[in-house]
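Q: My labmate handed me this sequence with no annotations at all. I'd like to see what the chain might look like in three dimensions before we decide whether it's worth expressing. Could you predict it?
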Amino acid sequence: MRKYLLAATALCALAASANAESVRMSVGSYNLNNLPFPVAASLGYYKDEGLDVTTENFAQGGSKVLQALVAGSTDVAVGFYDHTIQMQSQNKHVVGFVMLARNSGLVLAGTNDTDFDPAKPETIKGKKVGITSPGSSSDFFIRYYLKQHNLSEDDISIIGVGSGAAAVAALQQGKIDLLVNYDPAATIVVERGLGKILIDARSDQGAKDVYGGIYPTSVLYATQEYIDANPEVVQKVTNATVRALHWMKAHSAEEIVEKLPDDFVSGDKQTYIKAVEAAKAIFSEDGKFVPGDLETPLMVLKSFNDAVAKATIDLNTTYTNTFVEATASKPAQ
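A: Here is what I predict for the chain of 333 residues:
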């Protein structure tokens, strides 16, 4: 009898797998702003929703994911909200449907002997500044900093170095003088004694100091066409991701890291746990977009992006809370 039960269980599992809905999800990097996505996957929440998720990691940064989405080679992007504004200025309709990180998470770090002093912005002149990739939010960060202080992009060299260990190595090896990046890179730089954080936008106050307001970053977004054609899939993706946000809120950094695959963890485990602890404040608790906060990335992009500055941007069409609100009405799992 046990043999027949095992066989029946296996057949049920195969049937469930066969009936799973496929969705391609791409992530710009495994920086911690995107952490709710791998947490949801590791906890099996997408599978629980009957989804067969194919994941691609573009380590170069979120701009590569955006290109894949627009080209139709991925269905859902784990990327940054400001890209939805950028796309609207190009007459392309990309819509955020789950907020993952409600605040920036970005820092500007330098070597211990750097002579760059944020109180004297002109001291950045001549520096090689590492970002994740051209067109990414880290790129926007440094361009906005220059604009704020009447400096030119020609005053520095902007170099794409990726994120995580690759970004840290670029600073350590002297390929760059300054690094604009996220956790875990930010915490690794400090914990290993490789450098210091000079501008920190991880806290709400830090973001307000840098941008003048809260700067939402990581979201799940898709084209309006995909959302219209696949509302049930988008709802299931939302259900799983919001469930992960609730789980993260209720668990410690150490418990979160324990659920991640080993190849996701950059550097040594204890440093990574510290990085997750430092980043916990940036995560959304419910996945909802806060309309007032969306004004900040629009203002930043307008300051240096001519296409955005000249376009009439309707922020109401860059996001939807419809799917998150439907998730909130479901019984707790």
